[in-house]
Amino acid sequence: MAKILEKRKVRPDVYYIRLDTPDIAEHAKPGQFVIIRIHKNGERIPISLADIDPERGSISLMYMTVGKTSTELSTLEVGDEIKDVVGPLGKPSHIEKFGRVALVGGGFGVAPLYPIAKALKAAGNEVVTVMGARNEDLLLYENEMAATCDEVLITTDDGSKGIKGVVTIALEEELKKGIDLVIAIGPAIMMKFVCKTTEPHKVKTWVSLNPIMVDGTGMCGACRVSVGGQTKFGCIDGPEFDGHEVDWDLLMSRQQMYLKEEKEAMELYECNCAPAS
Ligand code: NAD
Ligand code: FES
User: Is the CB of 220 under 6 A from ligand 2?
Assistant: First the structure.
């Protein structure tokens, strides 16, 4: 059981929660994730760590209300308990002094970049973050990233804040100035195009993959991805992989596998939850 200590709606479709999980907070590292189950009949969903606070014994998560389980999670309030929080899972981000590092966050993908940015700074790197969203209202962690990184570049698809366009426009300019490593987290299509942008510059690019997951322990095979022509499991071999080696088409097609079932589950949930008229 993990009690919700804080809850905020940070975007119309994204919530921030801080959970009382001393054991996880003690061992968790940037780049890892947890799998949560709201109640005993609930679906298991993976969520990346958006912050780790060993001193207070808590972890923070940000999640988008995309389906039944995330919508149900958004109905829980401070003081409520989540039945299972399993973690930390996955391999932590590799942190050392690389030099000048560019972090690229698309939409709420910037959330898991925040603990990574803090760790890279503590290791002596110069950290430049490019964060992109469709519009100004969808930007997240702006102040936190500005307080942590050496530079933050903002892009919005509609030009309502920062550079008009997608993240790769700003990244291209930073690559010309010299970048030693790129870490990208966001929609798969964004990570694919970040890799296409860094490839000609021969800059190592780590991406955090978010395939469908079930058990999170390497047993079920749901999170199968292809990297460098080899089958890997996102949950135990990742979630970070060398983006230049990822089979993006396979990842994106497998992400769509249960769309019909997810839509049906959401419709049923909305129907059961509708207030009596
Ligand atoms: P979004 O779809 O609004 O995209 C955010 C930004 O990504 C855009 O503003 C743009 O700058 C960039 N982008 C999108 N398509 C691009 C392209 N073709 N080329 C270059 N840049 C492009 O993002 P959202 O609605 O906030 O959704 C966030 C996504 O991040 C979700 O798909 C979620 O699953 C993913 N995510 C992944 C992880 C992970 O661990 N991999 C963690 C959190 C979120
Ligand atoms: Fe089951 Fe990775 S989620 S093997």
Answer: yes
Q: Quickly tell me which residue has 């993959």 as its tokens.
A: 209
- Residues 81, 105: one domain? no
Q: CA-to-CA distance for 57 and 21, rounded, in angstroms?
A: 6
pLDDT tens readout for residues 156-198: 999 999 999 999 999 999 999 999 999 999 999 999 999 999 9
Give the range of the structural domain holding residue 19, as residue numbers without chain letter: 2-89
Q: Clarify whether residues 156 and 218 are in a common domain.
A: no
Same domain, 58 and 8: yes
pLDDT at 108: 86
Does 273 fall in a domain?
Answer: no
| Count of C-beta atoms within a 10 Å radius of residue 59 | 28
- Quote the tokens at residue 229: 């022509």
Nearest C-alpha neighbor of 31 from the set 210, 160, 154, 260: 210
- Regarding the beta carbon of 73 and ligand 2, being less than 6 Å apart is answered no
What's the CA gap between 187 and 264, in Å, rounded? 23
